[in-house]
Structures are given as structure tokens and as C-alpha cells.
Amino acid sequence: MQRPVARTLAVLAVSAAVVSVGAAAPPPAAGRGAEKEPVAVGHGGAVSSVDADASAVGIEVLRKGGNAVDAAVATAAALGVTEPYSAGIGGGGYFVHYDAKSRTVRTIDGRETAPRTADENLFTEDGKAIPFAEAVSSGLSVGTPGTPATWQAALDRWGSRSLGTLLKPAERLARDGFTVDETFRSQTASNEARFRYFPDTAELFLPGGELPVVGSTFKNPDLARTYAELARKGVGTLYRGGLAEDIVDTVNKPPVDPDSGYEARPGDLSAKDLATYRVEHQAPTKTSYRGLDVYSMAPSSSGGTTVGQALNMLERTDLSKASEAQYLHRFIEASRIAFADRGRWVGDPAFEDVPTKELLSQRYADARECLIKDDAVLTSPVAPGDPRHPGRCSTGGTPAPTTYEGDSTTHLTVADKWGNVVSYTLTIEQTGGSGITVPGRGFLLNNELTDFSFTPANPAVHDPNLPGPGKRPRSSMSPTIVLDKHDRPVVALGSPGGATIITTVLQTLTGFLDRGLPLVDAIAAPRASQRNAATTELEPGLWNSPLKGELEAVGHVFKENPEIGATVGVQRLPNGKWLAAAETVRRGGGSAMVVRPER
Asked: Where does L-glutamate bind (predicted)?
């Protein structure tokens, strides 16, 4: 692949400084203070996640001969211990897999589903939307978890180890504990008030009634026992056994502290909802970009269609030669337009007629790209177009605002020595999910159903993201794998961040593929996020930069966001080497590891 020469972008430089890739040491045992490094290069495979203990678990699986899928499942289980506010067996996600033997990409949709009794009025009372804060911390917000089923489905199709074997490291990590860092403490603090509504949550995450202390050891023996049960009985116990019964009881009768005065709305999840849950095996989205093929998640996620459409619009501009301001202007405007179409057209394809092929067509991208002007800014909300009947520079519908999505999600990326790759985003939605812990089980339940539109985003037009029986809420998760013309991996990455996932992945990809930034620098670069809103969000690195004034002169309006996304990824290098890269600062920094580091 021909890539532009790397250049220095002063405004995109990160003060986190220069990272050495030659001094990485083999990771210590999980739970024993594994060090975080944002980049590593070497042989034997690679793992990148937000957490050092979790990455170390994945590396150990690779070192013992497991493949990328095995390592991804083990790493995800460990993240359920160390990142319990972002992911766990009470949630769901999207799994993208590259098979090196067949050189093909396939995906698993493990998104949570609404109860069979749900309808479009799930989050309304007396014709009005329930307050969001009340919906979040309730049984009403909990969908049937998809994460355990995703793990088993991935292992059945591509794995080489049993789920029981792969859960053992996470079980030990939960039993023996991990070291509390500032991110874990601050996330607990931001949830402290609502955690106290639920005695089981407070007992687990506020030990002794207090916030966990940085540097202390946090243990979760209930989760260790739950993992042991899953290892012994299989994931069926979560969908048809005793664990399923506990989940249903908790959702339908949320265990609230009677002295708190909080009234948690009950859900209506049934044993049948869990017993009939199935993951969806489906083809990925595919977008050709600069001679490469970009693969990601098809609906129910909007990640693949929205990132892909924006890339198609950006391909008409040589971003490698654009100035920094021109690049960001084009990136922002393409994001704005793609989000306009996302809001109108994308939902669960089992319920909605989603024009996935048309949204990803170059013909439609060209019809929409011509709305972008070099000397002016589109006014949001931009109206959607009609991908089935594209007219040049035309808009074919009523604009609708982008609905809120919680930003507490996590992503991991794995490659093995055979060249297989996994890009996996998993979540419980809000930071801390619903706030409800299943008593005696050690994990939080998701609040994923709040990703549905509570009421139509615009009453004048059909909203494809209203709730329905067994329906999957629309997601922005964008686990991505890029292949070259020989169908070999170039890079794989993803991010948490709610709807900002899409813009984060898009900006990281263009920074790496177009702007010539090393992967770790493309990840660390200060971000912008435009989601068809009146204002574009900027991280401090751009907010405090001269670029802000240049873009404002064109017509952009900004507001500051202290942190957008938290990307991790892997890059294939020559001669069987891999580079793993993660955040240098965001969320406390990420953890990139390889099996045999290059000295």
C-alpha cells in the first residue's frame, strides 16, 4: 500500500510525548500491576485494550497457542472485571473477525434486544417521554444481554479453546482483585448517588460505604463465582438456567433501598425473552477507500454505514494534500451529512427497511458530497437525502436531531501469529449501565434500551429507531478492519464513546490512511465530533488551537468536550510483525502488548 509521507501537524501533536516501541517487556501476570504502554511492536500476535490486566490476559492466551478469537473472548471477560462500568456479561456488542486462511471478514451482532412485550410507547407515559435520568436507572432500560452468546458463537465458529478455559484468567482476576486507578475511582464517584439506590450495587462498588481508594485492591468474588458457573454449565445458564431467573427477577423487581426514596420503574423481561435470544451472523459492511477495503458492522449498528458513507464523500478530496483546516472542515461536514442520513434510515433490519447498499454506494455519496462547500458551513440539522433515488445536491426529507447515546463502552483489538484479527466493541451503554447489580452475581445490567428513540425524533417522518418487540436498538459501535488489495490486514481499530464512536473511528482512519500519522499518533490526535448538531464538539487540543479560529471564520460553531472516544488498534507490519496501539492519555491511557516484543 502506498501511503503519504508522514508529516508533523503541530496542532495535532500530543504533549504525551514520544513513545518508545523497543523497550516493551513481557506482560506480568494479570492483576499484578501490569504496566500500561500505548504502543508495542513485535511477533507472535498483539492485543490492545484500555486495561493492562485485560491485555495481559489476551497475550497469555496467544502465548499458549490460542488464536485471535480465543484471546478476544478472554480479554473481554477480563474487561468485565476491571472495566465493569463499561462492559460485562450484562451487556452486548459487535464482533468483527478476519480469517487469515480464507481472507474473509465476518461479523456477529450481539446487540441486546427489547422484551417481546415492548412497543413504541416503551418510554412514554401519558403521551410524553419519561425523563431520561429516570429511564436509565430502571428495569425498563434493560435489554436481553448478548455478550455471553457472542462469546460462545465466536468460539463455535472460529475459536480453538473452550469458553471454560478462557474464563479462568478473568475468574482469578475477579477473585484475587485488581488495583484501583484514578479512572475507576472517578467513574465510581460519578455514579455514587444512583449506586446507593441499589443495595447490591452499593455493597459491591462502594466497599464499606466509601469510594474505592486509588491503589487499593478491588475484588469481586460474586463475579468470580458467576464466571465459574458459566465455565462449568455453559452460557445456557444465563439464557435458560438459574442465572436467567436471577436476571428476570432483578429486571422486573429492581432491588431498591427502601430508605433511598427512589422508585425504579420495573421492566417486563421474561424467561422466554432470554431463552429465545440469538446473535445474528451477518456479512459486514464494505467500503472501498483509496484502494483499500474497509469492513465494519452492518445494521443494527449504524457504525459501518455512517463511517463508510463519510469515507465515500471524503474520497473525492486528496486529504493528504489538504491543509489542517481544510482537512478538518471536510471531515466535519462529511460527518454532518452522514449523520443526517443515519437518523432517517438506519434501524434494526429485522423491523426496518434499511437501504444499506444504497447508503454505501459511491453514487449516493457523490450526490451528497456536493453539498460541502470550501467557504461555507451547512446548517444543522441537515435534512436527509434519499439513497434509493439520489439527486445531485438534493435533500429528500425532514431533518431530525441525533438522539443521545451513552458513552460507556470499551473496545479491544487482537491479532494472532497466523494473521487472524478481531475487532470487538462491547458495552453496557451508560457508564455504570442501569446501575442495577444482579444480587449475588457481581455484574451490572445494561441500560441499552435507552438507545431507542423515546418518541419520534421528528413527528413528521418515520423514525426507524423506535422500540419494538424483540427489536435491537440502533448503535454507533464501529469495530473496523481494513484490508489491502490482496485481502490482507492493514489496520484494525474501534472505540467507545456513544455516537462519537463514528466520528472517532472516521478521524482515526483518515489520520492514519490519509494524513500519514503513525497509528499511535492518529489515535492520540485531538478530536472533533459533528453529529448533525448546531455545534461541533472539540477536545482541548483543538479548542485551544489557532485552527479553531480558522474554522470559525468559515462558519463553524464549537463547544468544548474534554474527551472524545478511546481508540485501540493493531497494524500489520512486514515479516509477521504487529504493532499494537492505544490511547496515551484518554481514560487513563490504554494498554498495547505483543507476544514477543521487538528489542
From this structure: 111, 451, 475-476, 498
